[in-house]
Design brief:
- By secondary structure, the chain is mainly α.
- The chain is built from five helices and no strands.
- Helix 1 packs antiparallel against helix 2, helix 2 runs antiparallel to helix 3 and helix 3 packs parallel to helix 5.
- Keywords: Membrane, Transmembrane, Transmembrane helix.
């Protein structure tokens, strides 16, 4: 129970850390050092979380595989969105990878909501649509 709580709070924290970075890019004057550092901090924290959840899942198997897929797809789409939004806005390959990860994120969220009745993933569906809109409009 305690491990699940810490993993849930870590995932929520990473999700809440992502959106201010996106808003910063739109509101403030672009600064490459700030954008690079924000990307690196978020990526390092997300990779640590993914490794941690992988190790704990192999060791204890206390989460469903669909929940792990949801969290990993969320973080991967966030990382690719930040990379293409902050660091490489003209890279076509990164754009296609980002769009693929967003569609995978939407599919897994959709599957969680309708097949497994996990209401948390409604936020994932809305987030995937918002990421898609940001990708298309920017």
């Amino acid at each position: 129970m305690k491990k699940e709580y810490y993993l849930e709070m870590g995932f929520r924290g990473l999700t809440l850390l992502f959106w201010p970075i996106i808003i910063y890019k739109w509101i403030f004057i672009p600064n490459i050092y700030m954008e690079r550092n924000s990307f690196l901090i978020f990526t390092i924290l997300a990779v640590i979380y993914i490794i941690n959840i992988g190790i704990l899942q192999i060791k204890y198997k206390f989460l469903d595989n669909i929940v792990i897929c949801y969290r990993i797809s969320t973080l991967m789409s966030f990382i690719l969105t930040l990379a293409s939004f902050l660091l490489y806005p003209t890279n076509i390959t990164l754009m296609w990878l980002k769009l693929l990860s967003i569609f995978i994120y939407f599919y897994i969220s959709f599957k969680n909501v309708y097949n497994h009745k996990i209401e948390e993933c409604v936020v994932g569906m809305i987030s995937a649509v918002l990421l898609l809109v940001i990708s298309i409009c920017y």
